[in-house]
Design goal:
elongated; alpha+beta; five-stranded antiparallel beta sheet; 299 residues; 7 helices; 51% helix
């Protein structure tokens, strides 16, 4: 036979919630209880309280709510304790401070770190995908995985596809029917970057310089890029490089500082790009030759 009805258990939860605000350290106050019978909160934490009966005794369950988004993180659940409702408010508050709040602080930090990593992953993923779509001719998102896979087709028989790895640290890039001169440049870049048997004079600085020279030569045979588009592409590259570099730093404060400075610069570049008036495309000599050759073939 039950000793407590629903109203009695609800009243116990509300009375304890009100009393705990005066015993817990910090600026605790009552909040509207949407998901439970009673709740209290301070700036960095909210506690849900509800009463239940066990073996004829009224008990309280007290749960510390985690930051929004916690449910999407594997292996994480809000910490919770249960206490007898007939204990003194002071002893219950001591239990909350000793057992519940430290567990909440630890798991809340875990949730925030996981959400931050997910945001960084999404930012890197979005920047790579957007860069492909903006740069490659005829680029389109994959129908089934639009956030991580893209493809393009043309000009001519050329086609390309890219799929990002789950760790967002690598990608599969497939290029088909690529002109031989461009193929040679790409082989050179990849080979120099990945080679485990670099010549004695192949320092990292020289590899980066060779990469910059190759990119400069490649840019010289492309249709001239409008300044606004070049600025947007530069902002995307800066975002990618800064995130890759900051993730290698062990100190959290140093990572935050690098990313904050990079974000400020990226925002400035993007704002400048959007404020520029449209520019007409100017074809390079190589493009003119390719167009002439195409027209001769059509005739």
């Amino acid at each position: 036979m039950s000793n407590y009805d629903h109203e009695a258990l609800q009243r116990i939860a509300i009375e304890h919630a009100h009393a705990l605000c005066g015993y817990l350290a910090g600026d605790w106050h009552r909040t509207d209880a949407v998901q439970t019978e009673a709740s209290i909160a301070r700036e960095d934490c909210e506690l849900y309280l509800w009463g239940y009966e066990q073996d004829g005794t009224a008990r309280l369950s007290i749960r510390a709510q985690l930051p929004d988004g916690w449910a999407g993180i594997d292996g994480v659940a809000p910490p919770e304790i249960t206490v007898r409702a007939d204990r003194s408010i002071e002893s219950i508050a001591t239990d909350i401070a000793r057992r519940l709040l430290p567990a909440h602080a630890e798991r809340a930090a875990q949730v925030r770190d996981a959400l931050e990593r997910e945001e960084q992953r999404k930012a890197i993923t979005s920047s790579i995908v957007d860069y492909f779509l903006e740069t490659m001719p005829g680029g389109v998102p994959d129908m089934h995985h639009p956030a991580t896979a893209v493809s393009s087709r043309g000009p001519g028989a050329f086609s390309a596809s890219m799929r990002l790895g789950l760790d967002v640290q690598s990608a599969d890039l497939h290029l088909r029917n690529l002109p031989l001169d461009l193929t040679r440049s790409i082989i050179h870049i990849v080979g120099r970057h990945l080679s485990d048997t670099e010549p004695a004079d192949g320092s990292p600085e020289q590899v980066l310089n060779a990469l910059a020279d190759t990119i400069t030569k490649l840019a010289g045979v492309r249709t001239q890029i409008p300044t606004a588009k070049l600025l947007r592409e530069s902002a995307l590259n800066l975002l990618i490089i800064s995130r890759i570099a900051s993730n290698r730093l062990q100190d959290r404060a140093e990572r935050d500082e690098i990313e904050q400075v990079a974000d400020q610069l990226i925002t400035t570049i993007r704002h400048r790009a959007w404020s520029l008036p449209p520019e007409p495309l100017t074809d390079s000599p190589a493009t003119d030759q390719a167009q002439a050759a195409s027209e001769a073939t059509d005739e």
